[in-house]
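so my prof wants the structure for this chain in the tokens format not the other one, which i didnt know existed until like an hour ago. anyway here's the sequence
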Amino acid sequence: MGLKPPADERKTHMSRSSRAWQLFVTSLCLFALTLGTALADTPRYSVIDLGVSGKGSQAEAINNRGQVVGWQDKGSFLWESGKQKLISTQLYQGAHAINEGGAVVGIPGEIHVFPAGRFSILSGASAFVWDRGYLGFLSGFSDAYSINNQGRIAGQSGNQAAFWDRRRVSGPLNDAPDFIWQSLPPHKLKPLPGYPYSAFYGLNDDNEAVGVLLRDLNDVPEHGQAFRYQGGKASLLPTPGPGASVAFAVNKAGTITGAFRQAGGQWQAILWHPDGKSQALAALPRSVATAAHSINANGDAVGWASPKANRGGKFAGLDLKPSSRSRACLWRNRPALDPSMVVDLNTTIPAGSDWVLQQARAINDNGWIVGGGIHHGEYHAFLLIPTPTP
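here's what i got, hopefully its the right format
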């Protein structure tokens, strides 16, 4: 028969076991509470198909009035209050941005949608502007990616980041709006040392712009660098590693979203705070590549995540029917942005919707989200509208 430990030692051991058990139960309860809170805080959406049957389409931007613009195989469209109309019928011309006044800008020629950005190099083509029924074109070889509420347009001209400002004219001109863009020369960004090419992708109402600097036109996958243009000065945006980067959008507060290239060659979504500090954003489980394309005034960001590696670390081009393995994502700023939390938007729509939401391209200040995905076997533009919580 073994010797029993003294009574006081047995009491001490029991006390330690009890405390350990209590600590375990407390931790489990806190985890369950945190998980329950996170699940309860996950938004729910109704989904609206903005596409046309038998035709590929994608929504690119939405303003706070709920007006949506994008492209389909017959040209650019504007969707408003349940109705869609073509605003440009040039083949594959892509509406890319819309401001609160309803002015739309876009890029010319054939559409190429890249997981970590888009860069059109169609020689001799001009960006377009559509406003209140009037369609005009910017001068020369150009792309327009953003327009703010003052009417300033940001994009590229002659492979240089550029702005265009509206000019008022006296009286109506062929029933056109009281300002025009196409006759104005662009204000081009002076090339930075080592980066002869550039493009603006995002612009806010303080005329702060963001985009990418390039060493050559095919250089984004290897050495393209995200940058910010503010107060007349351009500066590189820092990243967690030495790889390439690109900035897509900037909100009213100066918070920027984009993507950077990891050491393994894959792209990861990133956020830059107004002070310039960077913050990598989480991917969905089993995803190896992500990008954040848009951010609203509330700090909520949207983009995509994919479990498929980009071939050779390069951009994997997505046409009108991208891989069904990519998923539209949301990074919520509630009450503060948690870089480890990401929502698969496919989990937020009603069951049985027969949607695979693949790319979220924009989010407005009301939380409405637009993008593209597979619906009934076809690639269509979508609109997500938050549903009231019980």
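also thought this was worth mentioning. Helices lie at 7-41, 220-223.
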